[in-house]
Design brief:
Helix content is 48%, strand content 17%. The chain is α/β, with parallel strands linked by helices. The strands form two sheets. A five-stranded parallel sheet has the order 2-6-1-7-8, with helices on both faces. Strand 4 and strand 5 form a beta hairpin. It starts with a strand and ends in a 5-residue tail after the last helix. The chain binds 2'-deoxycytidine-5'-monophosphate (DC). 2'-deoxycytidine-5'-monophosphate is lined by residues 12, 34-35, 38-39, 98-99, 102, 128-130, 179, 183. 2'-deoxycytidine-5'-monophosphate binds at residues 12, 34-35, 38-39, 98-99, 102, 128-130, 179, 183.
Length: 227
């Protein structure tokens, strides 16, 4: 098969990025985590003393930022003006800030163009919110991966606790619900399932079952010899 693209969209904490990583390794292709790009931009804005929730502070600053992504054997590194933000991306405050900056059309235009450029000419899995609807509407496979807010909050809490952050289940759940609302209700490219995306509700599925389902859908079309 010529090069191909796979889109994985869904709300935060649904396991998109981890599934995309495992699937990409299995297929021998690259994975671009587009949420990391919104997160890195939020990190840079905060470091420069700007408020990501204020569009009139973010937009004039945008032209000073150049975002780049590097793929290493350990995974994706996301940089803004050559500063690598990879270690900070999942700090608790960054999640809301990334959702804030992702509402602005000028930010989306810039990052969507970068995402298309990176994925051009080779096989790629992209995960995010608008991959199947906006970034790659002609992707060869589209998955919409979701889970109940409670299940997603439980998974996110485990990750945050492992990093030593002190936070309760109720706080994580509230944050997830607020970000779901914001990501689904924004005017520009809201989170929604593409009509031709396979819907996977992973609330009652193991991680391995999710991967097997996706791999099966891909491999049945790709042909065993190519995998
Ligand atoms: O997938 P994530 O939680 O790392 O994404 C962080 C935020 O970035 C999320 O709240 C919405 C935004 N985002 C987006 O608007 N479009 C994408 N393709 C990816 C992420």
């Amino acid at each position: 098969m010529r090069h191909y693209t796979i889109a994985i969209d869904g709300p935060s904490g649904a396991g998109k990025s981890t599934s995309a990583d495992v699937l990409a390794k299995r297929l021998g292709i690259s994975h671009l985590d587009t949420g990391a790009m919104y997160r890195a931009l939020a990190c840079a804005l905060i470091a420069d003393g700007l408020n990501p929730a204020k569009e009139d502070e973010v937009i004039p600053a945008l032209s000073a930022y150049s975002l780049s992504v590097e793929f290493t054997p350990e995974g994706q590194h996301t940089l803004v003006n050559d500063q690598d933000w990879t270690e900070r991306l999942y700090d608790h405050e960054i999640s809301q800030a990334a959702s804030d900056v992702s509402r602005y059309p000028a930010v989306r235009r810039y990052l969507v163009a970068e995402q298309r450029r990176i994925a051009e000419g080779q096989s790629f899995i992209l995960d995010g919110r608008d991959i199947g609807t906006v970034v790659l509407p002609d992707a060869d496979w589209k998955f919409f991966l979701t889970a109940s807010p409670e299940v997603r909050a439980k998974r996110r809490l485990k990750d945050l606790e492992a990093k030593g952050e002190e936070i309760t289940f109720a706080e994580v759940l509230k944050d997830i619900q607020r970000r779901d609302d914001q990501d689904q209700s924004r005017a520009d490219s809201p989170l929604r399932r593409a009509s031709d995306a396979y819907l996977i509700d992973s609330s009652e599925l193991s991680f391995e079952q999710v991967i097997e389902y996706m791999a099966q859908k891909i491999e049945e079309k790709l042909g065993f010899q190519d995998v």
